[in-house]
Specification:
single chain; 171 residues; mainly alpha; 57% helix
C-alpha cells in the first residue's frame, strides 16, 4: 500500500510474535472448515519479514521434518469431494489453493540458499506446492455461491503471484 510506517510496524509485530516459534503445531490441521493453514500462513509471513538466511534457519526450526508426522500432513493436499451447498468442502478447496501459494513462497525463499535446511526443504516444498495447486485448480471454479464469491480470488492470487512458477501448466 506504499505506507513505509505500516510496513515497518507490521514486520516488527510479526518478528515479536513469531520469531521464537518452533515445531509448528499442525496435528489439528485442517479443521473441517479451514481455508488457510495457520502454520503455513505464519511461515509465509515470516519469509516476508526475515532476511533469507535467518528465515531458512527459522523455517528449519518451525517445520523440522516435512517427511515425518505430523508436519508431512502439510505436504499432502486435502481430499475433497465437493457437493453442491457443502460449504465445508468448498473451504477445503480453498485450503488446497492457499497452501499452494504458501508452500511455493517458502520454496522460492529457499532458492539460492545453502545449508541443510534449504537443501532438505526446498524440493518437498516445491513438490507439495504443485500438488496442492493441481488439487485446488481441479475444483476452484464453481457455480455454487458457497465458493463462487471467493474461490476465484484465491485462484487468481495463486496464478498471478509474482514469485511465480507454481501455477498448473507453468514451466
Amino acid at each position: 500500500v506504499g505506507d513505509a510506517d505500516l510496513e515497518r510496524e507490521a514486520a516488527a509485530a510479526a518478528r515479536r510474535l513469531y520469531a521464537d516459534d518452533t515445531a509448528a503445531v499442525v496435528g489439528a490441521e485442517p479443521v473441517g472448515w479451514d481455508f488457510v493453514s495457520p502454520a503455513l500462513t505464519e511461515a509465509d509471513l515470516m519469509r516476508r519479514v526475515l532476511d533469507p538466511d535467518p528465515f531458512a534457519s527459522w523455517l528449519d526450526d518451525f517445520l523440522p521434518d516435512l517427511a515425518a508426522p505430523p508436519h508431512d500432513a502439510l505436504c499432502s493436499p486435502v481430499d475433497v469431494e465437493p457437493d453442491e451447498g457443502d460449504g465445508a468442502a468448498i473451504h477445503l478447496i480453498g485450503l488446497n489453493v492457499s497452501r499452494a501459494w504458501c508452500l511455493a513462497g517458502l520454496a522460492d525463499a529457499l532458492d539460492g540458499r545453502d545449508g541443510p535446511a534449504a537443501d532438505r526443504l526446498r524440493e518437498p516444498l516445491d513438490d507439495a506446492a504443485r500438488r496442492h495447486a493441481e488439487a485446488g485448480a481441479a475444483d476452484v471454479l464453481t457455480d455454487d455461491y458457497a465458493g463462487s464469491h471467493w474461490l476465484s480470488s484465491f485462484a487468481l492470487y495463486l496464478l498471478t503471484r509474482n514469485e511465480g512458477g507454481v501455477a498448473p501448466g507453468a514451466a
